[in-house]
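If your schedule permits, I should be very grateful for your opinion on a structural question. I would ask you to consider whether the tokens describe a fold that such a sequence might reasonably adopt. Thank you for your consideration; the sequence and its tokens are set out here.
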Amino acid sequence: MEKIKHISRINLDELPAASITRYWLELTTDTLGNEVCIPVIIAKGAEKGPVLGLTAAVHGNEVNGIPVIQRVISSINPALLTGILIGVPVVNVPALTDKVREFNDGKDLNHVFPGKTKGNESEVYAYRFFHSVVSHLDYLIDLHTASFGRVNSYYIRADLRDPVTAELARLQNAQIVVNNMPSDGTLRGAANELDIPAITLEVGNPNTFQRGLIRSSMTGIYNAMAYLKMLDVPIEEPASPPVYCRTSYWLYTDTGGFLRVIPDLAEIVTKGQLIAVQTNVFGDVVREYHAPDHGIVIGKSNHPVNQSGGRILHLGLFAN
């Protein structure tokens, strides 16, 4: 097995054309002064073109995107590639190592981008990652999953006001596309602040590899590269178009107990429909929850133990 080179900065101009290179990119140091590095895979094409970034595991428990990036890049012949593909299979290395969601200072890394040069641990890490990697990009696809105790459909978050991000979202062949403005602190939002069109792929469930969703995500990324003229391959259109949502929101419990969420993922629910039942420890029904709007189930809780303020389901409201 080849020894992977450690680098402190990425220099795309120094890389040979028609090559795939793997690096450990040094970002910070731990409490013992050892380097904390992230894995970076760079496929540089034979011809100049756009720079597309693929990122995964911004949260340490969201691993479905890791094999997506590995397989996409390993399947590419760089001699047939136009432009550059930069893949970061694991952004949040400390969280993945500890098998937790948050960074090791307890902060959600996807709430602190683009970070700070002088800040707390997560802010410095986010700043160095953002300026070491994302600043090189022309486009970004950021892969996520649901969090602990929840499951997701395969859906896309994108600013559909922008024609480029709207088309990148459509090409992912997802079940649902949600119009979602870039939130403060997210990787996608920070990229958009640099005028880098970016979309978020929500690829299923945490702490697992789901082969079907991994394959679907790969197809969407190939479609994106075809659209950006990085690969001369046909775009694979979906068997059915995605459901578009103008917005979405979570529903929450108002008391504790054992929760059963009734609708399936991607199921359409009508206003007033029974969507969840909550019982107490003795088995008595204490609450019934009904859909406040007509919409589609994007994600839902699958953990029965639920206290006041717990999540029920993520409801998407249809676009006109």
About this structure: The longest helix spans residues 211-227. Residues 71 and 218 are 8 Å apart (CA to CA). The helical segments are 65-74, 93-98, 121-132, 163-170, 187-193, 211-227.
